[in-house]
Model the fold of this input.
Amino acid sequence: MKKETHVLERPPEDAAADWTIPQDWSAYTAEEHATWDKLFARQAKLLPGRASAAYLKGLEALRLSESGIPNFEELSERLMQLTGWQVVAVPGLVPDDVFFDHMANRRFVAGNFIRRPDQLDYIQEPDVFHDVFGHVPMLADPVFADYLEAYGRGGMRALELGALKQLGRLYWYTVEFGLIEEAEGLRIYGSGIVSSSAESVFALDSDSPNRIRFDMQRVMRTDYRIDDFQQNYFVIPSFEALLRETVETDFAPLYAEILAQPDIPIAAILPGDGVITRGTQAYAEGKG
Ligand SMILES: [Fe+2]
Done:
């Protein structure tokens, strides 16, 4: 995930100028590898029939498995052959321009730490399971790989245009929490969902959240929650359509239009929405 909190101003002493650090794979303990294996086994059982074909194909192509935390160098070699992307370690959250620059140059920044055994179901900061199991299989898909690079370039532009929050929502509702409509039905591809056992089920099966057809402008105006299951999921028709729209959109006038309009509250449904599921919001309200 990508949040705006706790960002350092300059790279810590052990990091390079581009904020990368060695993964230090040999330093992982047996317990840490076992945490990966446990999480992997749980998700691998859940995801067939739930995750998008592209995600499952990537998982297989990269040979991610139940044999410990992947070594980023080996993983990057495989990924490089497939789509020209690499995985690099960074010390937690990095400044926006650093994040976008890596992405625009096909380097995916990942945390190298793994959650503690008592945090299997929930962590606040993205760990190596979220970043690698959640994100990296999608980077093995050529179309999604191009989308993320385009997003990185778009990030630079959004920084200049003062629209970081709006662009961040696009990331949130696609890369982190996106759904796609496939021939067999809705499937998950967002990393925040595929790396969470509870949300892998909730996002597709629960009556509570809204499921709405993706609309770039609508998404960029919509608030989201970072502390619990999403109250909205946006459904893309295909990765090709998402890439095409991202590459073809002229963002300066789009941002000007969006910034002149109010934000859309989290669970609201608007008259023009392509509603697939009108959620009861019972889960979110039950928590309130
Ligand atoms: Fe993420």
Q: What stands out?
A: The longest strand covers residues 232-236. Confidence is low (pLDDT under 50) at residues 1-5.
